[in-house]
Amino acid sequence: MNSNVQQKPGVTISESPGSGSENPDTRSPVDTKVHFSDEVWQRHLCPSRVAPQMARIDRTLQAIHGLHTLLQRDWRGVSMRDTAPESCTHSGLDSFEIDSLHSAADLLIGDAMACVYALRENKDDCWGTGGRA
Fold first, then answer.
1. I need a labelling partner for 50 at 20 to 30 A (CA). Which of 56, 73, 105, 121 fits?
2. What is the DSSP-derived secondary structure letter of residue 131?
3. What are the CA-CA distances from residue 45 to residues 11, 100, 127 (Å)?
4. Could you read off the pLDDT of 1-46 as tens digits, one per residue?
5. pLDDT tens across 74-116, in order?
6. pTM score, two decimals?
């Protein structure tokens, strides 16, 4: 079988080759791990459309906590450096890094609020109540 199967060029770089291709798609997903909060919320007896929203809120709050911890650690380090510069070597974050962390926290908070709003207002009947909130 020396003939090549002709295929049209892929539309995107991530498009898989067709089943008749001599170059089969042997790629595996980049990340097959499931976040622990997804597993926890999938075990709860809540509607199937609610569990992913709750897991997303859970992950978002964990990320916000991490950002807050970084900002708080930096603030404490700068305070220690200002009160006892001879005993502290903390250089601190620059203003761009601090602004970036605050912006990331703002985006994450907005995402969590959108998820909570969708749950509270029963958007797309996520609670399975026929659209009643």
1. 105
2. T
3. 41, 38, 12
4. 556 656 555 545 455 555 555 655 566 655 666 677 777 777 777 8
5. 999 888 888 888 887 878 899 999 999 999 999 999 999 999 9
6. 0.64
Take residue 71 and report the two structure tokens written for it.
Answer: 């900002």
Amino acid in position 52? P
Q: Which residues contact 122 (CB under 8 A, 6 or more apart)?
A: 129, 131, 132, 133
Contact 98, 71 (CB under 8 A): yes
Backbone phi, then psi, for 13, in 5-degree steps? -65, -25
Cα 21 from Cα 96, distance rounded (Å): 49
Of residues 102, 128, 104, 124, the one with CA closest to residue 115: 124
Tokens representing residue 57 in the block: 């809120």
Annotated domain spans of the chain: 36-82+93-123
- Which residues have C-beta within 8 Å of that of residue 41, sequence separation ≥ 6? 51, 52, 54, 55, 58
